[in-house]
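REVIEWER CHECKLIST
Item 1: Sequence provided? yes
Item 2: Single chain? yes
Item 3: Sequence as submitted:
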Amino acid sequence: MATTTNFGWETPDDTDLVKDGALAMRTLGNSIDTSFVDLKGGTTGQVLSKASNTDLDYTWVSPTTGDITGVTAGTGLSGGGTSGDVTVSLSSPVAATLGGTAQTTYATGDLLYASASNTLAKRTIGTTGQVLTVSGGVPTWATASSGALTLIAQGTFDNPNVSVSNCFSTTYENYLILINCGINNATARQTFFRFLDSSGAEYSSDYFASVFGYRTSGSTLQQTQSNAAAQISFPTMAQGTAQNSYFEINVQRRASTNGAYASLTGTLFTTPDSAQGSYTIGGSYENSNTVYGFKFYNGTFNVAGAYRVYGYQKS
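Item 4: Structure as written out by the authors:
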């Protein structure tokens, strides 16, 4: 007896007698009826689903349907719809919201942060070389420090009066000043130091200082002291502008609010005439004024050289 290829249902052979045709058709019909029995039944709205991996093994099930009837574009979005394919896109700009506060305008490099509880703020981009740090509990941009000392100001000079204004600020509390120079006169070679206010004007009183050192010419031990003077006086400097006098000056506590008045300590190495001198310098400006810069001068003859001002890292 022949069978079908896919399901193996019986069919008449070509040599079967005509009288056997009714039996063959009945057999084939019963096979089909049995195979598709799972197609019976079901109710309105149900769908036919596979019950197992077996051929023709089906079951009627109710389909799982969603309850979304439309898509509405909210704040910062566009598009939406209630039928067919729905597309939702971001609006420009997108409103960033936190606790009822929002930021809707942005520039390249802006950063979002919470400036307080449930308060959204933005920080505009910093400048080249700055780093993101924390100040007052919020992120801020600041100049990166390369180490314990940061170069603040530098320059050259050839003048009787050398003023470096506004090199001191709240960024640092202590400073280092380096000066190398010479003076262009053989008889008036002493130099002086004063602090400046925020406008560049000099503080011309209330200085206290002492200088102690040794000069090789005649093995001379030198020491000077001044009280309530108009400036701090430095020893005899190198003759000529070969820049062979070297100052290293530390300025501490530039503001009286830090618990003390501005003070100054340092060293000086110089070669006046054919001698050499090495000195230790200590002094202070004992007034409640905050100092913002300094003046280094002779007042009559040119002092020529170069200076650098560094800030000491606070922590």
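Item 5: Key structural point noted by reviewer: The chain has three domains: 2-61, 96-143, 149-312.
Item 6: Recommendation: ____
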